[in-house]
Amino acid sequence: MTVFDILKAFWETAKNVLPIVLFLCVFKVIILRKPLEEINTLIIGTLLSIIGLHLFLKGISLSLIPLGDSVGENLVVLNNKYLIAIFAFVVGYFATMVEPGLKALAMEVEEISTGAIPMNVLIKAVGIGFGVGMSLGIVKILNNIPTKTILFPVLLTAMVLGYFAPREFVDIAIDSASATTGPVNIPLNMAIALGLSKILETSDPLLNGFGIIGLTSMGAVISVLVLGVLTRI
């Protein structure tokens, strides 16, 4: 790879970052009529963001995605649906533990609630829910179950729990679901699901390989709502 190719690759990433940075700067200066503070820091931070994002995406494409796809294709070697479901739970749980978005959300929740909702408790609750959702998604693929067959009961459960849970937990649950769909979970879990779906003769990757991220997010919603119900009890 030549220097030109490397610079071109970085420019592709920069085109996604620079517009939002420029828009915010222009909006602040022209609309809000506020000066930009610490411009040097802003420039350096933007450059670091572009470099970091590019390297992260490159690393994901070279490691997690092919590894997850390979693992998914070989899961059938276990020849035990229960073991495969347990494996899916473990992967979903620990992948959620490293999501930066979830950690940022949990820190804000702990701060705003003055410690009433500890960061570690929220993160672990979301991780458990995400892991359960991941297991449901893998079971769906293994048994060729339509997504709507699982989704409707999950949505109904979330609605019932949302009625009994404190209001603040309902809002946190929705944001927690969004925070789990980050740069680690989506490529890893999607790769595993698609890899497994491609290797099964009874499964169509287009029909069964997708939808798993939605199920994992709903699992996170339900787990936080359950936590809210338990605090009320």
UniProtKB/TrEMBL annotation:
Keyword match Mitochondrion: no
Coiled-coil region list: none
Lineage top rank: taxon: Bacteria
Pfam families (UniProt xref): DUF1538
UniProt KW keywords: Membrane, Transmembrane, Transmembrane helix
Stretches that traverse the bilayer: 16-32, 39-62, 82-100, 121-139, 145-165, 177-200, 206-230
The protein's name: DUF1538 domain-containing protein
Organism expressing this protein natively: Tepidanaerobacter syntrophicus
